[in-house]
Amino acid sequence: MLKLIESHDRVLMLGHGSPWGLLSTGQFPDAGLFIIDESMVLPLQNKTNSVFIWCNADQFVQRHGLSGLNSGMFISEVLEALV
After folding, report:
1. Is 0.70 surpassed by the pTM of this model?
2. Residue-wise pLDDT tens digits, 16-36
């Protein structure tokens, strides 16, 4: 994954996540729980136009000083709206 991030000008990251990163959701067996986490921050800091779309991606982006389009919380279930 690191080589792919480094070799592109813009990185699009979309899916389920948390303030700690983008979940791998079993799609990337070697990645563990997260496909994008603090271990990917350094190569992402060199990008100025990446897209971070997952729940609470804005917290991840702010905490690590990244730039690009990002999202906050998506309400996808009734229980999330009640909290």
Report:
1. yes
2. 999 999 998 877 777 788 999
Dihedral sign, Cα of residue 78, residue 80, residue 81, residue 83: positive
CA distances from 53 to 44, 79, 81, 82 (A): 14, 21, 19, 22
pLDDT of residue 79: 82
Burial of 48 (0-12, 13-18, 19+ CB in 10 A): exposed
| All residues at 6 or more sequence positions from 41 whose CB lies less than 8 Å from its CB, including other chains | 64, 66
Residue 49 Cα distances to 28, 44, 69, 75, 83, angstroms: 24, 10, 7, 25, 32
- Separation between Cα atoms, residue 74 and residue 63, nearest integer Å: 19
48-61 residue pLDDT tens: 899 999 999 999 99
